[in-house]
Amino acid sequence: MSKNENREATIRQLYTELNKQGSNGEYEKALKSANKILALDQSEQKALQCKLVSLIQLSKFEEVLKFLDRTQPAYDCTFERAYCQYRLNQPEAAYKTIQESGVKPLPPNLKELMAQILYRLENFEECFDLYRDIIKNTHDDYDDERTTNMSAVAANLCVEGSKKELPKLREDTYELTYNAACALAGKQQFPEAEKKLRTSEKLCREFLEEDGATEEDIMDEVAIIKVQLAYCLQMQGKSKEASA
């Protein structure tokens, strides 16, 4: 067997290991296998992609950015770069990466990421429009999470005093009810906000108790609701009740 044939056989064996490691979520091992393949042939794009995925799964975001700076992948890595910048709390850089990529229209994964970036940048109007577009055109297991995120954006728009016309959103979970309450508080409708916050706390307790959460976990989760409730009570002059 020639030297070239030996190398190809080794690469095939490493890919077999890499596929198994990736399927099992063994990202440290997968990273090592990908590196071995790239050491034998730097043009192996599948190994390069697996290396990026493994680094991201291991939260080695700075390493991903350094790798992308010195490598020229054959496929577009806008998402990987922007995602790592976002996770490193560099939303401005992540926004710039997507804007300057020239990718039009944005694929679903970049749309979702851009919505999170816009929220971090407190660009709530553009963020709301993007979430509305995503929800309208996407139907999968993450619909409820997107609706919750959009309701949080709507609450922030109300706090800002935005004149944007907002649709009525669902209130069938404690998170959605909480966000609706925050929107009312933003409009200084404190009695109505108080009612929804009490409903949110009740729904939260019921949901977590059914889920088998400990009392400590429940208290941690309702803490933010209680803080907002205390604020609404304070604004209504119910200082004694607010400090209870």
Automatic annotation (TrEMBL):
<keyword id="KW-0802">TPR repeat</keyword>
<dbReference type="InterPro" id="IPR011990">
    <property type="entry name" value="TPR-like_helical_dom_sf"/>
</dbReference>
<dbReference type="GO" id="GO:0005783">
    <property type="term" value="C:endoplasmic reticulum"/>
</dbReference>
<keyword id="KW-0677">Repeat</keyword>
<dbReference type="Pfam" id="PF17004">
    <property type="entry name" value="SRP_TPR_like"/>
</dbReference>
<protein>
    <recommendedName>
        <fullName>Signal recognition particle subunit SRP72</fullName>
    </recommendedName>
</protein>
<dbReference type="GO" id="GO:0005786">
    <property type="term" value="C:signal recognition particle, endoplasmic reticulum targeting"/>
</dbReference>
<keyword id="KW-0963">Cytoplasm</keyword>
<dbReference type="InterPro" id="IPR031545">
    <property type="entry name" value="SRP72_TPR-like"/>
</dbReference>
<dbReference type="GO" id="GO:0043022">
    <property type="term" value="F:ribosome binding"/>
</dbReference>
<keyword id="KW-0733">Signal recognition particle</keyword>
<dbReference type="GO" id="GO:0008312">
    <property type="term" value="F:7S RNA binding"/>
</dbReference>
<keyword id="KW-0256">Endoplasmic reticulum</keyword>
<keyword id="KW-0687">Ribonucleoprotein</keyword>
<dbReference type="InterPro" id="IPR026270">
    <property type="entry name" value="SRP72"/>
</dbReference>
<dbReference type="GO" id="GO:0006614">
    <property type="term" value="P:SRP-dependent cotranslational protein targeting to membrane"/>
</dbReference>
<comment type="similarity">
    <text>Belongs to the SRP72 family.</text>
</comment>
